[in-house]
Amino acid sequence: MISAEKLDSHTAISSWLAKYGDDMYSWAFYKTSSKETAEDLVQDTMVSVYKSYEKYKPGSNPKTWLFTILNNKIIDYYRSSNTQKSVNQTTLQGKQLEDNNFDSDGIWNRDQDPLWGNTEEHLLDNPDFLIVMESCIENLPPNWRGVVLGKYFHHKKGSQICKELGITSSNLWQMAHRAKLQLKECLEANWKNK
Amino acid sequence: MNPLKKIARISCKQAALLGTKASFNALNLFEKIKLKMHTKVCVTCCDYQKNSEFIDQAVEKTIRQNEQQQHTLTQKQRNKIIEALR
pTM for the complete prediction? Predict the structure, then answer.
């Protein structure tokens, strides 16, 4: 049997989801570039709000409260993507990428043809290209994605990105470098040879 | 070989890493010299650098586009979230 209080909070949160759900989802997507992650983050936020509903001060703006919790969830998401276990996995993936690109002396294995062909200026305005780019970003491992997006959100300030993600600066350069190689491979596979 | 040249000699792999670091404006003077000396003689690294800058622009454009877009949760996604409140 659900108590009357729980029923109240359930109704309140359902109405908040109806009212603010799309804004939360859009924000989470903007901060993570992953629809799946954005959905999970909205769900986690709603579950947290449901569990701590008694902390809500009636009359205050629920949107502010929801977004505070959502932003904390986003930080947690990136932090947890930088735990030793996840980093070990992506280190392996990164080494593989480097082996695909460089020989044992660290020399490029092949020429680096321009990704844009002859259409550079138009490509960034081409919606089809941006869809491919979006999916390449989405397919990055979360910790690399955090670095790539963090570079944009923090205006290239490495120290701020490291602080937010809980990583060292040498990790930052390494992850940014490997993320770049992966994005390049993804574009070569999914755009250039289309 | 000039000893300075020898000290400053780096592989393409190291140059690519330094190039990424440069895009955060984080190179020290010695790293700047090493990168410059390498890209001056290495055509492939020059080409990669251009690709790398293009990717940076494409990432920026994609994120800026995401900022302006409103995304909508489907009814199925909403039901799933409500279902989780138990």
Answer: 0.90
